[in-house]
Amino acid sequence: MKALVKQKAEPGLWLMDVPEPAIGPGDVLIKVLRTGICGTDLHIRAWDGWAQQSIDTPLTIGHEFVGEVVETGRDVADIEAGDLVSGEGHLVCGKCRNCLAGRRHLCRATVGLGVGRDGAFAEYVALPATNVWVHRVPVDLDIAAVFDPFGNAVHTALSFPLVGEDVLITGAGPIGIMAAAVARHAGARNVMITDVSEARLALARKVGVSLAVNVAETPIAEGQRALGLREGFDVGLEMSGRPEAMRDMIANMTHGGRIAVLGLPAEEFPVDWSRIVTSMITIKGIYGREMFETWYAMSVLLEGGLDLAPVITGRYPYQDFDAAFDDAASGQSGKIILDWTV
């Protein structure tokens, strides 16, 4: 089968013929239909410091996908050939304290699909049945392909109650924009999003944010005043990993404000802990999705009319992966899809 492989420990990716994956008694074999390009995939392609420390070559990359089940292991129940599925990309041990307590998203031994084991940028992918999400209601294939990052957005956005609240989102990448759409749909009063990319701020406006602010030109405090807020934002969603974004968010929160942090910084940085303490601000780190509560929430949100179509800005045949990756790395796009049916 064809697969997109990190074949060598150097920049680049290789489209290659590799063996079709075998499945065990508890596994599912899936014919991949579409995949989404993630920031993790961009790091692997660029072969940056993180990738050099995290990836063993050769490796089939990719973890955002939708596909059709073609075969199930003998112990698999409730999943059948022909089912349309996506996959939870965090594979857990099932034996640690958190796994046994039903908190699988907190497993200390998590292995990432397309990072620690061969992934979904291929014609077929194999997954444990416990990591397979069956789409029981109709869903657009492009949206189904990005359930993984959509889940990051939902997990972050729904960490705190949003009804009637004023929400600040720093970072208008695809996940930040999806989080903004979720916050609006979930009943937030105001949703302000910040970035330095006008193209991405324009995408955020399409999903209905109250205000999209280019912080290279306008400070957050000015946006706060434009919305008529007197005491600051109630909820913050930090999606950028930028030190200045986190510091500005803390400075613009109301007393008792709550911040969920998904953005992953490249290195340590100082924050105003005195402000956090005296303003009694709650900060919660987010990684991945709650298994599978977040997935249920995603499906229900889509059933309820949440529209993520504006977030998808490009689709390419998998053979044109270089152009697709360049688009995704431009900083001007939303989610980029690879089509594996052509």
From TrEMBL:
Cofactor binding: number and manner: Binds 2 Zn(2+) ions per subunit.
InterPro entries tied to this protein: ADH-like_C (IPR013149), ADH-like_N (IPR013154), ADH_Zn_CS (IPR002328), GroES-like_sf (IPR011032), L-Threonine_3-DHase (IPR004627), NAD(P)-bd_dom_sf (IPR036291), Zn_alcohol_dh (IPR050129)
Keywords: Cytoplasm, Metal-binding, NAD, Oxidoreductase, Zinc
Source organism superkingdom: Bacteria
Catalytic activity: L-threonine + NAD(+) = (2S)-2-amino-3-oxobutanoate + NADH + H(+); 2-deoxy-scyllo-inosamine + NAD(+) = 3-amino-2,3-dideoxy-scyllo-inosose + NADH + H(+); 2-deoxy-scyllo-inosamine + NADP(+) = 3-amino-2,3-dideoxy-scyllo-inosose + NADPH + H(+)
Positions bound to Zn(2+) 1: C38, H63, E64
Span of domain Alcohol dehydrogenase-like C-terminal: 174-300
Known partners and oligomeric status: Homotetramer.
Name of this protein: L-threonine 3-dehydrogenase
Organism: Streptomyces auratus AGR0001
